[in-house]
Amino acid sequence: MLDLLTGLVAAAHGRCSYAEARHVVDRHERIEVRGGRVERVDAGTSEGIGVRVRAGGAWGFAATTDVSRGGAQAALERALALARALPDVPAASLAGIDAPARGHWSSPRERDPFAIGLEEKLAVLLEAEAGLRGDARIVRTQASCLSTATTTAFASSDGAAYTQEVTACGGGIQAWATAGGELQVRSYPSAHGGSVAQAGWEHLMGLELAAHAPRVAEEAVALLTAPPCPAGPTTLVLGSEQLALQVHESIGHALELDRILLGEASYAGTSWVGAADLGTLRYGSEHLDITADATTPGGLGTFGWDDEGVAANAHPLVARGVLRGALSDRESAAAAGLERSGGCARADGFARQPIVRMTNVSLQPGAAGSLDDLVADTGEGVFMETNRSWSIDDRRLGFQFATEVAYEIRGGELGRLLRNPSYAGVTPSFWASMDAVCSPAAWRLHGLLNCGKGEPGQVMRVSHGAPPARFRDVEIGVA
Fold first, then answer.
1. Are residue 149 and residue 20 in the same domain, yes or no?
2. Where does the pLDDT of residue 268 fall: very low under 50, low under 70, confident under 90, or very high at 90 and above?
3. What is the pLDDT of residue 90?
4. Domain check: are 96 and 236 in the same one?
C-alpha cells in the first residue's frame, strides 16, 4: 500500500504544488452490558484512501473506498479537479518540516484487545455491572468497554513515506439512583466513556472495575439525600479528571490556531486569544504550565507523525502563566509567521481532511504534594470531581461546569457529601485564581473520546493530564 501511495503522489508531480495520500484502516469494537444483560456489541472496520492536493492556492480533497491503483488514481483526479474549480487565491505557503517522515511507528500493548474472546470480555463487564446492583434505589447500571485499532500509511510530495499502528482500549462503569424525584449518577473511573488509553486489554483489566463497583453504587445512593451544594464564592479544589476537561475546553480549544485565525468561525467558533498574543498574553497565574505533547505514553493524542507527516513533538503552550505557543498545522503555522508546525494536523479516518486538533494537552504538576496535602492546606472550601456536564461560549471565555460529586472541605479535611455541584467563571480570571497544583505523583492522564470539530464534522480522541489543583474565589452553586 505504501508503494501505491508513493506512486500516486509522484504521479501528481507538475500538476499541483503539493500532494499527499493516506490509506487508513479503522477497526472498532464497543461492548455494553446493562441490568445483567448484554445491551450492545458493535464491531466494524472501515478502509479507504484520502487524497489532498494544493493547486492554484486552493485545496482539493477526495476519498474512496476503492483501494486499488485505479481507485486511488481516480481519487487523485477528483482532488485535482476540485482544487482547480475553486477561485484563484494567493498561494499560501506551508510551514517547513525538519525531515521527511519515513519509517514505522506503533503504540505499545501487552494484550491485543481484538485477540480477547467475546466471552472473556463479557465476563469482566457482567461481573463489574453486577456489583453495582442490590439497592432498589439503583435504577440503571452499566459497564462498557471500547477497543480500537488504526493502521495508517502516508506519502507526500515532500518525500514522506511512513506507516503507523495505534491500538487503544478501556472502559468504565456507571450507576444511576433515584428517589423522591431526585436522580443521581456516579461513574468510575471517569464519566463520558470511562478511561481509554493507547494500550491493550491490560489497561481495562488494570482499572479493576468490579472492585470499585460497590463504592460507586453507594455514592450514587448517598447523593440522593446529600445536602445541595452551597452557592457563592469559595475556595475550589478540582480533582484530576474534572481539571482535565477544564483544560480541554478553556485552553486546548482556545489555542487551536485555526480558530485564532478565524478559520473555524462558522462552525466551532473562534477564540478569545489573538495571533498577536503569542509570547505576551497573561493566560493565568504563575502556577499554570501547559504543554502539548504527542509523545506522552498512553495518550490518545500520541503518534509517530501527524496526518501531514510532521514528527510528534512536545512544546509549551503556557509557561508560568504566559502564553508561549499554539496548536497548529503547516498551513496555520505559516499564516501566523511560525517557522514550524506544531504537529497537530489530524483527520478522522480516510474520508476527512486533516485539520488542527489537540494532541495531549496537559497541565504540568506543581509542588503542592498529594490531594490530602492540598486539602489540609486549604482549610475551608469545596472539592469537586467527575464531570457531569459543561457549557462554554464559542470564544472559550465564559463557562459553567457541573460535576457528579462534591465534598465540603472543613478543618483541612474532606467532610460531608454535596449534591448537584457546579462552578462558573471566565477563562483568564479563573486560571489566574489557581494558587496551588499537586505534585507529580498526583498527575493522571485522562482520555476524551468525543472531541468534535470541523465541517463536515470530525470526532477525535485526545488525552489530557492533570493533577488536582486549587482555585480561589470561584463562584459555585447548584446545577
1. yes
2. confident
3. 76
4. no
- How much of the chain exceeds pLDDT 70, in percent? 100
- What's the CATH code of the domain at 29? 3.30.2290.10
| Residues 247, 308 share a domain | yes
- The cell 461546569 sits on which residue? 401
Same domain, 266 and 159: no
As a whole number of angstroms, the distance between CA 137 and CA 126 comes to 20
Residues 133 and 282 in one domain: no
Does 255 lie in the same domain as 210?
Answer: no
| pLDDT tens profile 326-342 | 999 999 999 999 989 99
Confidence of residue 193 (pLDDT cuts 50, 70, 90): confident
| Residue closest to 185 by CA, chosen among 173, 171, 195 | 173
Nearest one of 102, 157, 96, 161 to 330, comparing CA atoms: 96
Please tell me the predicted confidence (pLDDT) of residue 57: 86
The residue from 225, 255, 275 where one domain ends is 225
Domain extent for 388:
232-478
> What per-residue confidence (pLDDT) applies to 275?
94
Looking at every residue in the chain, the average pLDDT score rounds to: 97
Which set of grid coordinates corresponds to residue 331? 498551513
Number of domains composing the chain: 2
Are β-strands 138-156 and 161-179 bridged in parallel, bridged antiparallel, or unpaired?
antiparallel
Residues 59, 103 share a domain: yes
Bigger pLDDT: 207 vs 92? 207
Contacts of residue 446, Cβ cutoff 8 Å, sequence gap at least 6: 190, 195, 240, 241, 244, 245, 463, 464, 465, 466
| pTM summary value | 0.96
pLDDT the model gives residue 56: 84
Domain boundary pick from 165, 195, 225 = 225
pLDDT of residue 15: 95
Cβ–Cβ under 8 Å, residues 479 and 389: yes
Same domain, 175 and 269: no
